[in-house]
Design brief:
alpha+beta; 7-stranded antiparallel beta sheet; about 25% helix
């Protein structure tokens, strides 16, 4: 009688961006994440590699019109679709990426092609295989390697075009110089506009820089100073909620006297002039749209314990054409290393403000911290606080906005994959899902900052331990 072959082991975790996700749409987003997980797990059950599985997950996310990647991506300032994507293999440590790519429905396919080309070794005549290509170079590579292309219009949806028209109109109104603020009955002019230089009809009051906390206490605020008190940490079981000091104090971008509002029909829309990563923000009339920050991503672990991580993004809305976000940059969007020399394997996929994530190399930073410490939750906390929220490279940023999904893996036991999945974000929310080969369905949810906690001033970190068996 033949011996029964044990079932394959595997795991996948995905996210569809850190930002703000309307509670009314949560079920929709969770279903998008679940479908991506199911696509990956189906391959892992067939003993396909982590690379194969992570590709299936990202392609599923890119094909959804509800994500900011591939189909439905945010439009640039010029009304074009330009996508970034990257992938990293934890065994070979090769990395493939594309940036500012137009005309390809699934940018991750081009990044994968670059990765596999590196795995194959030197090209003809000893040429070094490229790891990153951008714009026309990336498109030409796709054509030469028979990766499906499409028209730019094919990547646009009604929602992405409406969002572009709406936000472009608001930007044009602001740059033209005259913006009505019905809430404060103030006419505000852009100081650099012709109209702004010609006349100032009124001045915004409350220039004394006194701020008020949520209890009504007046506190002096120094724009050049930052609190250096130790962070308050609360670790309970496998979950932690961590807040930076000063959460009770209004930041400049919360003070009405520091905001310019643009009216568009019946909508009042606060524009945070100093916040480049938050063009679309909650409306003051009670309606709050979804605000996605850049990137979708996935991490997969296969039966051998190998890890692959990937990301894909349409970038921030009204971005400058040619702009590269963290999804196209090494160490910024994704990271993967298999377990070696007694250290756990790690996979990381980030999302948030691309410029901030790039300055801090957040994906690589998270991976290094998780490999070197015994307590993954504490390690991720240290990384987000010390190397992101309090990073000297972001000292001029009022709201460091980022999120990450991470996985640590110990594959030393051939019968069981011991892993921990973690998620962290400084944004209002982040939509996440994960699934193992032992599960019938994916676990999907929207993680949120605690109420009354300001985005960019605190980080939420949570985790779950899993033992995935081959039985």
């Amino acid at each position: 009688m033949s011996e029964k072959i044990p079932a394959a082991k595997g795991f996948v975790a995905v996210h569809i961006g850190a930002g703000y996700h309307s509670p009314a749409n949560c079920e929709l987003y969770e279903n998008v994440c679940k479908q991506a997980c199911q696509q990956a797990i189906a391959l892992l059950k067939q003993r396909k590699t982590a690379l194969d599985a992570v590709m299936a997950a990202i392609v599923s996310l890119e094909n959804s019109q509800w994500t900011n990647a591939g189909l439905g991506s945010n439009l640039s300032l010029a009304g074009t679709v330009e996508c970034d994507a990257s992938i990293m293999d934890g065994k070979s440590l090769y990395f493939g990426a594309v940036g500012a790519l137009s005309g390809v429905r699934n940018p991750i396919l081009v990044a994968e092609s670059l990765l596999r080309t590196q795995m194959a070794g030197e090209m003809s005549l000893g040429r070094v295989p490229p790891s990153t290509l951008v714009a026309h170079g990336a498109f030409d590579w796709a054509v030469r390697h028979k990766i499906p292309t499409c028209s730019m219009q094919d990547l646009m949806t009604d929602a992405s075009q409406k969002a572009y028209i709406k936000n472009k109109r608001k930007l044009d109104m602001f740059e033209d110089g005259i913006c009505e603020n019905p809430a404060f009955k103030v006419r505000v002019m852009h100081p650099d506009s012709q109209a702004g230089r010609r006349v100032a009809e009124t001045r915004v009051e409350n220039e004394n820089e006194n701020l008020t906390d949520d209890k009504g206490t007046s506190r002096a605020h120094d724009n050049n100073s930052q609190s250096r008190d130790s962070c308050t940490t609360e670790l309970k079981g496998s979950s932690s909620s961590i807040q930076k000091p000063g959460d009770g104090v209004l930041a400049d971008n919360q003070d009405p006297s520091k905001q310019t509002e643009i009216t568009d029909g019946n909508e009042a829309w606060p524009v945070k002039i100093d916040d480049r990563c938050n063009l679309e923000t909650p409306h003051t009339n009670g309606f709050t749209p979804d605000v996605f920050k850049d990137t979708v991503g996935a991490i997969c672990v296969d039966d051998n314990g190998a890890i692959t991580s990937a990301v894909s993004s349409g970038g921030i809305i009204l971005k400058q054409p040619g702009r590269l976000g963290q999804a196209a940059l090494y160490g910024c969007g994704c990271w993967a290393e298999n377990d070696v020399k007694g250290k756990v394997g790690v996979g990381v996929s980030t999302s948030g403000c691309g410029e901030q994530l790039s300055k801090t190399l957040l994906a690589k930073a998270c991976g290094e911290c998780l490999k070197d410490k015994q307590n993954p939750t504490s390690a991720l906390y240290d990384c987000f606080v010390k190397r992101f929220l309090e990073s000297p490279y972001l000292r001029n940023e009022k709201q460091p906005l980022g999120g990450a999904v991470a996985v640590t893996v110990d594959s030393s036991n051939e019968q069981v994959l011991d892993l921990e999945v973690l998620w962290a974000h400084t944004t209002d929310s982040m939509c996440i899902a994960f699934m193992s080969t032992n599960d019938l369905d994916a676990k999907a949810f929207v993680s949120r900052l605690p109420s009354r906690v300001q985005a960019g001033k605190a980080v939420v970190i949570q985790s779950e331990n899993l033992a995935i068996s081959s039985s």
